[in-house]
Design a protein that fits this description.
about 250 residues, alpha/beta, 2-enoyl-CoA Hydratase, Chain A, domain 1, 6-stranded mixed β-sheet, 11 helices, ECH/Chromodomain_protein, Enoyl-CoA hydratase, delta(3)-delta(2)-enoyl-CoA isomerase activity, ClpP/crotonase-like_dom_sf
Length: about 250
């Protein structure tokens, strides 16, 4: 478990909270962090004791997305890449997942929400998917799930033109389940998780399975995205984005 992923279990209400904790980098996610997140989700799926799982971010950010410099170095795994392990774990988890979006959610910070069951956002949260601006393509089956969630017009605006939604817009378009004041956010999240953890467990699992039927298309789309995402990571466009960030300038695409 990397020090940047914190786990806390509340035994009273059998809930586990996974905190993306790298505030000095706005909680940007590295490959090692993805491996730790996958481990936590896989353990949760197998656990009989823990009945609700919360994903949140440390301090003022949910997550700023992938650590681009870390990904530019290429995968350090001989097996399944950590990010694929994470996406598989979150998209196939049979038990309820709560996302507590405490601040800006960028890139995978948005696309992972599409695989969570309840999404509560602080009123200060924002949502953006700047894949095209980074020389990349959508991932986590978001090219399929985001239009189905917020509508084609808004999805196009987000995925192509990097429209940033505030919390109220995210609620109106159906990207989040509810919005809570930032001042009482932790209390609202704890109450939501406790209620879910105290519900009849087999009923919760079966209801989630009924809601999340038809996974074949999602899995196929995720696989197509992964191929294209890997290609873009090796592209001159992505190399230009990384170079521009290091040189603190705007990227120039030919």
């Amino acid at each position: 478990m990397t020090e940047n992923i914190k786990l806390h279990t509340d035994q009273r209400v059998t809930t586990m909270t996974m905190t993306i904790a790298r505030p000095e980098k706005r909680n940007a996610i590295t490959q090692d962090m993805y491996a730790a997140m996958a481990d936590a989700l896989e353990d949760y799926a197998r656990s009989d004791a823990v009945r609700a799982f919360v994903i949140t971010g440390a301090e003022d950010y949910f997550t700023s997305g992938n650590d681009l410099q870390d990904f530019a170095k290429g995968t350090r795994s001989d097996g399944v890449p950590p990010v694929i392990r994470f996406l598989t774990a979150i998209s196939t988890c049979p038990k309820p997942l709560i996302a507590a979006v405490n601040g800006p959610a960028i890139g995978v910070g948005v696309t992972m929400l599409l695989h969570c069951d309840l999404i509560i956002a602080a009123d200060t949260a924002t949502f953006s998917t700047p894949f095209v601006q980074l020389g990349l393509v959508p991932e986590a089956a978001s090219s399929l799930l985001l239009p189905a969630t917020v509508g084609m017009a808004v999805a196009n605006d987000m995925l192509l033109a990097n429209r940033v939604l505030d919390a109220a817009e995210a609620l109106r378009f159906g990207l989040v389940s509810r919005v809570a004041p930032s001042s009482g956010f932790a209390t609202e999240v704890a109450s939501l998780a406790a209620g879910l953890a105290q519900a009849a467990p087999s009923s919760v699992i079966k209801t989630k399975a009924l809601i999340r039927h038809g996974k074949d298309q999602m899995t196929a789309q995720m696989e197509r995205e992964s191929v294209l995402f890997a290609e873009q990571l090796k592209s001159p466009e992505f190399a230009e984005v990384v170079a521009a960030k290091m040189q603190k300038r705007q990227p120039v695409f030919k």
